[in-house]
User: Fold these one by one.
Assistant:
Number 1:
Amino acid sequence: MASTIDSTLGGDLTTEGSSVDKANLKAALDAAIADIEGLQDGDAGTEALPSLSYSGDLDTGGYWPAANQFGISTAAKLTALFSGGGDNYLSFAGGATPVVSVAGADANVTLDFNAKGTGAIRLDAATSVIRTQAGATMAIIGAQSGGTNLFNIFDATAPTSNPSGGGYLYVESGALKYRGSSGTITTIANA
């Protein structure tokens, strides 16, 4: 690269009548090229010193923690991690409770939280939907059927074994039931 820059910068450079120091310009271009080549050559960076950062904030930016991963570091702490392999994952770290929001002018934006599999919690302007791992709707929380602040539990297949240290709350054929750890099934409300 240096020979290309040397041959390109042959002679004096001027800008609007003032002379530019060729040596200083060459040094600046060499440094910029080294930064770019460092990224291309795999300068992975670290959580404390990410390889993609701003000059005034060197401990905040992006880096490569491992193969097929991209980390985002804020104040020298891993804030988010994207991992490949066909699926992308976002993991939050750092101790504080993460806040995920959708910005924009449209008030009807839906936000889905999917576990590894098909289970999900879906949030939109009116309701929250909780789904099973197989994708079936378990419950809807929110405004529905003319009501507000409702918790609608969908019919389930009754459990066939006893839970340990707790109980199962479920709806069977429209009736709200509870199965305790000893196997007793109590109908709380008929259909």
Number 2:
Amino acid sequence: MKIFFLLSLFITSNCFGKKYHINLNQSEISFTVPYMTISEVKGLFQKFRGHFDFDVSTGILNTISLEISAPSIYTNDSKRDKHLRSRDFFEVSKYPVITFKSTKISPVGKKQFDVLGILTIRNRSREQKVKLTYLGAEKKSWKKESIYFSAEADIDRILYGVKWNKLLEGDTWLLGKTIRLKAHVRGK
């Protein structure tokens, strides 16, 4: 009985792959949002953390968890960044963390995954789809194995209470409603 218990514990602990933590120094989460219908605002989040469970030998990705520091938003314009942190957008004094937790991960190719998860912004949680690509593993340059992924998601900001906008001449809005989020992460 004891051997059966140890064997089942070993199988259970290995079926989820290895837990990799996102390396902030070699990862990036950026975004773009349409601006005046002819341009776009670009920015990034400077602080975030997370982890994912991945088995390199089988290519199975099991879980993803991410926390983004909303106050770390940066667009290279201090006045705009202050506005983005205000009540009009992220209201970071009240909602300092943006989270994503996967609920379903489906392989859609050798290295691609469709990820469904719960995205929470401003305390509003909704299901969000993310397209993920496994870029590869690397061991030679670092003492620990590193895993690289890229991700993309289109987020309807209105659904999360990020509604501020301004009507311009010709019935055009200053900002588009869809945020394109991109991430390149290194896990180790």
